[in-house]
Amino acid sequence: MSVLIENARILDPVDGFDTVGALCVQGSEILARGQIPDGFEPRRRIDGSGLWLIPGLIDLAARLREPGQEHKATVASETLAAARGGITSVVVPPDTEPPIDSPAEIELINRRARQACGVRVYVLGALTHQLEGQQLAEMAALMQAGARGVSNASKPLASLLVLRRALEYATTFGLTIVLSAQDPALTGSGCMHEGAVSTRLGLAGIPEAAETAALGAILALVEQTGARVHVARLSTRRGAEMIAKARADGLPVSADVAAHQLFLTEVDVAEYDPNCHVIPPLRGQRDRDGLRAAVARGDISAICSDHQPHEPDGKLGPFASTEPGISALETLLPLTLRLVEDGLLSLHDALARVTTGPADILGFAQGHLSAGARADFVLWDPTAMHEVRRKDWLSAGHNTPFFNWTFAGQVRETWVAGRPVWTRPAEDTA
Amino acid sequence: MTETQIAHPGARLPEPGPLPNRLQLTDDGQLRHMLTIEGLNRELLTEILDTAESFANMNEKAVKKVPLLRGKTIVNLFFEASTRTRTTFELAAKRLSADVLNVNINTSSAVKGESLLDTLRNIEAMNVDMFVVRHEESGAAHFIARHVAPGISVLNAGDGRHAHPTQALLDMFTIRRHKGDFTKLKVAIVGDILHSRVARSQIHALNILQTGEVRVVAPCSLLPADVDQLGVHVYNDLDAGLKDVDVIIMLRLQRERMEHAHLPSEHEYYQLFGLTSRRLQLAHPTCLVMHPGPANRGVEIESAVADGPHSVILEQVTYGISVRMAVMSMVMGAHQA
Fold it and tell me: Which residues form the signal peptide (chain B) (predicted)?
């Protein structure tokens, strides 16, 4: 089908394109951006007056909970939530149950994704067998089955020797290795940032060094092996500075941050709010500001949701025994654009952190609006005031600290491969 | 680029007043629950201590019972072993004529699947009026207070490392009985501050009562991060920390601190941080020696000191009953006339 979207403000971070004009879609691809080619006869015309047209978001970390944790969420429920949030591609970490350590799990997830709303679903394969941190997983088989990279999620590796061997083996196939920088012993039973707030609340803290010590070891092994490593979910200012220095030194490393880390701090844990129980933890204001600065500079080139939906019981208990994580697909784009309002970075740079940035990290072809690109895009209504409300929420996990936050702007429509996968219902405005 | 505090128009506005009070006080400032000392004001702490004073006088008489809580049901819900705290709560409840039910739940053997909330709902269904809760997790009392039916009060009898408010109150009561005015006092809390809910509650209480100086004395491996922000002076040397103090509060050292590499040995700890007769002489001549119990003699305190003339350790236990009677009667809105 051919579609013409007219009079929208087209914003494409790939080259800073910012023009009110037309986007022509032919089949699943973008035919032209800006002007209408001669002889283009669209079957459907959409008036985009007053709207922004941006590339669909690519989210580097979204737990969809299938297989194994369908009581929390499903591929169907969460891809629809992603679509509502303007996300058109999600990357699933391998810590499903069982973990994604064979082609069978990948096939299962792909099958579920085909039955769902159409949002593209990608997976990271396990770095080690069953994520146990001992033996290597069959990475070549995982790659052939479609894994976009390998990762041990947040599970520890037995030793730095295992990490070294895993980096070397993955590099054989040019695979990107996604690592979280958390020293398991220094993390211990910690459940929040170690500092004045953890002291006051009597909660076991996770020191900054849990991240920086692990990151130091990772960077040393990247230097040794030349492996292409992506560091997932930075939480400290010092960690961001280490990444900046490593990149300046020419190491093949990149990094991302979860959107909530750019807005919340340890103080938001307040009186044991389980919705602020996340790993890595919300840290101090200097960390938040340091992460923001690294996002602005581009040393952190991707912002992700780190989506972790939970059933209500998962968050019902004393703080430390609740399950960590935020249901975050539906707030990724609003929070990212809030960074522009806050004066942190330009609109194009903000969009790049959720489109071209993550695309470059895992080698995706989408994430921009050039002619020939996949027709994955979002129509954004910049004038609609949008309060985050439980009744509009599509994720099966209601565990978010952002209910009742109000944002300027809202997703009007989300398109994947030239088809609308989500359209805002009339009542979903506030 | 913005690196300062950013006001988000959409963010929830902080509600007025110190946070814990939204849960534990009624709108007119009365105690609804007793979860933590933090955030309570001096007037309320003083009122509790005054109320406890009247019960203490009664407890020294032949007839030790008043009908203030007759017909009320109080449940001691203990997820963590305790003898002294539970028995003093039980005795306090009985002296107020309440019915008492003791429920001990060994969490390590608790069947997975029965959540804390399930346990709570089941007991709640028996129409109880108050829970006295001890739990190994910080924030457990807050969690329970948030989820109990309206009208049920929750008393925190110790949650993880977070708070043990009635212990701190009985310590304040003991200090006040001996010393009167807090503003001129120097108080040293010595030992495992990191893992101590007692120390945290004492620090809040001492500061609210405007104590002249609050010190903590410990090796760095037993101090929590940024402890000075609780409003204390930090000493790593016991001799320096005891100089001229009016009250010494010794904390119990758990054996597992050696296993988890916080300390090398009990022996070295005693050499450096044990309260001995010699060290006691560094303090003010009328110094009180306190301990929340049970004391490890020869580990954190010399027997001669624990049993010596400065020690008020057994008085603390006695006053624990009066203080708990005061808190129980106040949360039930049954202030003694």
Answer: none
